[in-house]
Amino acid sequence: MMDKPIRSLIETVQLRKDICVVFEMSHRPRLRSLSQEEATADVFDDAATVQELINLAHDVYIPVTSMLKKLVMRNTGVKIGFAASGSCLSDLKASAPAVIDAWRGLTEMDVIEWLAIPYNNSLSLLFSDEAFREEVTRGDDLVYEYFGVQPNTLLGSPVSDSSISRLATAMGFKALVQKVKVPIDSKVPVESIVLDENDLINVSIDHVIRDTIVHRFGAGDAAISIEEFIAMINRVSGDTVVVGLPIEVFKWHRDAGILQFFESFLSIAAGQNRLVSISQQIADVTEEYRHHNSPLSNSIASDHSPWLGNDIQRQAFMAAKDLDEPTAHLADPAARRALMKLLNVHHFINMSHSLAGLDNQYLSPQEAFACYMGALESLKRFLNNSVVREDDKGAKSMEAERQHPTTPAWALNEQSRYKENTHSHI
Hints:
By secondary structure, the protein is α/β, with parallel strands linked by helices. The protein has helices at about 5-10, 45-75, 85-95, 95-110, 130-145, 165-170, 205-215, 225-235, 250, 260-270, 280-285, 285-290, 305-310, 310-320, 325-330, 335-340, 345-350, 365-405, 410-425, and strands at about 20-25, 80-85, 110-115, 155, 175-180, 195, 200-205, 240-245. The relative contact order is 0.14.
């Protein structure tokens, strides 16, 4: 039975917009202490990373999953977008498999809609086209393995860039979800969902709605009520509002009651038949978007300042980029996968004075930078040793061929044909 306060809100608070909800999930890989001469691709503190994820599963993933199950019992047509990094899913499968099982059940019930995201929630988009394709494809493969679905929508996260629309189209995605700055009470109508010149559907996450939940929820006098939040949504231009949030907000604002807040909000949206999925929006897009809306992709600025806004962030990124080509085509994938993991956005957040939060394991951005550069140096030494081993292997192979020469295959073929022709003329 529905709680009386929620039923009352459904009857008294009117949503005038369709609502898409997308939860973003990733985790921060911890770096371990390395000696100055260590040469390894194993630069991560996996035990600390997994323990942090187990805590997050207990504090966030399990309660949110329970909330969704309650919503499904009360309402029909509930559908929520999930975008989870492959590294997060893989570690959850190993350390908290019940969460994966629950999400599989909700996926089979058509409640969860999966969006594609780079495997390591990485800055691979700024690295190279090849690295970005590699990361997204690896993440998609894991979603298919765990949940039996292939995402047809790409989430432009953690970073967007002018090149992402082109790459999304080339990779066969039908839609692209990105965070854009659309002002509330804008005098110019701006649709949240438009069709661009490549027939790729662009879906915008409104940054004001997102920031309201991330920064204002439970903030004393600045706290927002469910009525105020819905009134804010109703003022956004366009027919559909996309609410995209990092799922960690349920940890950050747990004591302020955000889980109950969102249960009420989603109950209102579902109860008024306003809760819609990205895939529904894809199906509803028609030619009128092409004629009445300018391409959204052209209005998105490439703002990389949160991750590459200071000197040490840029220096760290360029040092990592120097290892792109050396790791791209190695037979052993360990170094390449370590490099992609080192592109995880949280490494660069740790180097920011303004973004580093309470979960930061470092005392300062400079300490985070020093640890990161130490990991890169260790990986570089590992690569140099690998090249030496490959060169040594090649030299030994050539020496073996010199000492034990063999007749080339083409010569054996010619010799065989000669014998056959000679035999046929006798």
